[in-house]
Design brief:
Elements (H helix, E strand, L loop, with lengths): L1 H15 L2 H15 L11 E4 L8 E3 L14 H5 L5 E7 L9 E9 L8 H5 L5 E3 L14 E3 H4 L13 E8 L6 E11 L3
Bound molecules: iron/sulfur cluster (2 copies).
Length: about 190
């Protein structure tokens, strides 16, 4: 009982002295007098997200280059927006880790929420959400990514932790915009 009374008095003192307001004001003023950081994107710099980032899907292989996807369709069932299509087929050429592989593996990025449920549901870690986030394009067809696109090596390798800014080259091909990061020239940036 006395403890509660002590807490009430402390709360009252805090309210009278506007301590929460002062704390908030301190943060705002801190930002006002701190040095501005300008991210020169897309002309010169590109943000490389952390590994945990949820960008465009990647389909992965094992160390022997075999596709990890066994076309079990669990990702299809887990997806809340039904944006994944998987068509399985039998294969005995050693293309995948099992005799069942994906004939079609397709994701419609317009409907995707990037929630990661497909990644969580996958028993072989074949599908992972990658670090590609530049989805703007002038052709609507580029919003659909197929197995062949997703199996391509990723521009940011898994060995790079992320959370860095890389030197970038900005191009405008007819298909949309392209920002290529030079991962040899990077710097840490405090946001
Ligand atoms: S990230 Fe979510 S919405 Fe997108 S394909 Fe995977 S499960 Fe579906
Ligand atoms: S990506 Fe994973 S969950 Fe989806 S079909 Fe392939 S193995 Fe199954």
């Amino acid at each position: 009982m006395s403890d509660k009374k002590g807490i009430d008095i402390l709360d009252l003192i805090k309210k009278v002295l506007f301590t929460d307001f002062v704390k908030g004001l301190k943060v705002t003023l801190g930002y006002n007098i701190s040095k501005s950081i300008t991210h020169r994107y897309p002309d010169d710099e590109k943000w490389i997200p952390y590994r945990r980032f949820r960008g465009v899907h990647t389909l992965n292989r094992d160390e022997n280059g075999r596709e990890l996807c066994v076309a079990c369709e669990l990702c299809v069932k887990a997806c809340p927006t039904s944006c994944i299509t998987v068509v399985p087929m039998e294969d005995d050429t050693g293309r995948g880790i099992a005799d069942r592989v994906a004939k079609v593996w397709r994701v419609n990025l317009v409907r995707c929420l990037f929630c990661g449920y497909c990644e969580d549901a996958c028993p072989t870690r074949a599908v992972r959400l990658g670090r590609e986030y530049e989805l703007a394009c002038s052709d609507f067809r580029c919003t659909v990514r197929n197995r062949e696109d997703l199996l391509m090596p990723q521009p940011v390798p898994e060995s790079i932790e992320g959370g860095i800014v890389a030197k970038a080259k900005f191009e405008r091909p007819l298909s949309g915009i392209k920002v290529t990061a030079d991962l040899k020239v990077t710097k840490k940036r405090a946001w």
